[in-house]
Amino acid sequence: MTRLVKIGLGVVVLAAAIYVYYTEIKPVVIFGLRDEYAHAIPFQKVPEGLTSLSAESCGQCHREIYDEWKTSIHAHAYEDPFFQAYWKKDKNIWVCLNCHTPLENQQPTLVKDIPRGRVEKAVQEPNPHYDPAYQKESVTCAACHVRDGVIYGPFEDSAAPHPTKFDPNFRTTQVCQRCHNVVSGPAQFYNVGPCGTYAEYEGKFFMQERGFICQSCHMPEVTRPVAPDSPIRHGRRHLWRGGHDPDMIQRAVAIEVKTDTPQPKPGDEISFTLNLINAGAGHKIPTGDPDRYFTIEFSVEDAQKNVLDQQKSTMGRWILWQPAILELYDNRLLPLASREYSFAYRLPPKSEGLILKARVQYHILTDKQHEMLRTKYGLTGNDPYRFVIYEREFPLSEKLAAVMEQENRRQTALSRLQEGTSCKVQAAS
Predict the structure, then answer these.
(1) What is the pLDDT of residues 305-315, one digit of tens each?
(2) Fewer C-beta within 10 Å: the chain N or C terminus?
(3) What does the DSSP 8-state code read for residue 45?
(4) What pLDDT does residue 423 have?
(5) With a threshold of 0.85, does the pTM exceed it?
(6) Structure confidence at residue 419 (pLDDT)
């Protein structure tokens, strides 16, 4: 066999292997299928006593809950500009709808079979019950509360003009598990799935020792009647604030800045340490979409705002997407963990007016990713995709001692507030 023939056969075998890999092994989506979300929640009929499954219909009696839901990311999970752009990038694959519009009533097709778990090979047929208007309600009331013509909820003694039933899962983390526990699939080597917040939840400390569950932070407690003329209940607000809300990010972290040279003089090398603490989240931070990350930034500026020195560190996940999905690095913070970031700068002989800026930013995605979604996949709107959660200026002069004393008092006050309250603390305000 000639050398040329051998090369030709090698090329053919390699091409065949690549073809088999991309058509039979590597899935087209960045997550695997789990039974709970491989299919939509089955078709739900309107419970007796109601005229519709729509959230607005529920809101006729449960007005405060409805008004809260309308402000939530759940209510906009389908029309959210980021989701629509990412979904277009993923060729509008049907499986994403199983969390963003989870009811069969909200989806244009019915998935009858998924051969070998390959979402692109799914057998689909038109859904006669599809309601386009209802699809826009995204994660709507019935997605969690309606099954088989009955309204399920967290109270054992409900009395209502419709069938009700107590479901103890509403008082546990289990109610969040279906969509917030995305797993990895073939040729995907994540430590935790791409949206694996549920799997990251540190239940031992937060639930067993402090009594916190997901709802403790994302559905704050409230005492009120759930409907007109109903008894006052100890329930929860339907807000679900999370990774798109800068206030929630600030509540999750505590930030401490210290220096070893509180009274610097020209020629001194001055060192600063920023300690970033996951003080209030029961899961890693950042969590959810693997594109999210923090930057920890130091910069020295003169009186004319010229940057003389700077340093930037990143905290998040680094994932190789091709040819296989491989999580290369994950330096996110576990619950109650902390990490120190240090910066040193030698003051010049003339250091009047110099300041150090310390800043922490939270990013939903990178500038490059945002531009790609905007130009190639139709990202619309001006939704912010990065937030400053901490920013302080420290004079590099004899005034530094007074500023650091003030900063230390602020940190001490926040630490006292934080004890025993976890997610209720504005830890970086």
Answers:
(1) 999 999 999 99
(2) N
(3) P
(4) 52
(5) yes
(6) 55
Rounded CA-CA distance 247/250 in Å is 5
What are the angstrom distances between the C-alpha of 253 and each of 278, 296, 334, 383, 427? 5, 13, 11, 23, 6
Cis peptide before 323 (omega within 30 of 0): yes
Do 218 and 231 touch, CB atoms closer than 8 A? no
Please count the residues of the chain.
429
C-alpha to C-alpha distance for 56 and 58, rounded to whole angstroms:
5
Give the chain's count of helices (H) and strands (E). Answer: 14, 16
Amino acid in position 194: P
Q: Cα 129 to chain center, whole Å?
A: 31
Q: Listing from the earlier edge strand, what are the strands of the sheet with 164-166? A: 146-147, 150-153, 164-166
pLDDT in tens, 311-362: 999 999 999 998 899 999 999 999 889 999 999 999 998 878 899 999 999 9
Identify the bridge partners of residue 146 per DSSP, sorted by sequence position.
151
Question: Top-level CATH class of 246-424?
Answer: mainly beta
Two tokens, residue 138 = 């995204």
Which of 194, 29, 208, 186 minimizes the C-alpha distance to 122?
Answer: 29
What is the residue extent of each domain of the chain? 30-236, 246-424
Strands 338-346 and 325-330: unpaired
Tokens of 277: 């603490």
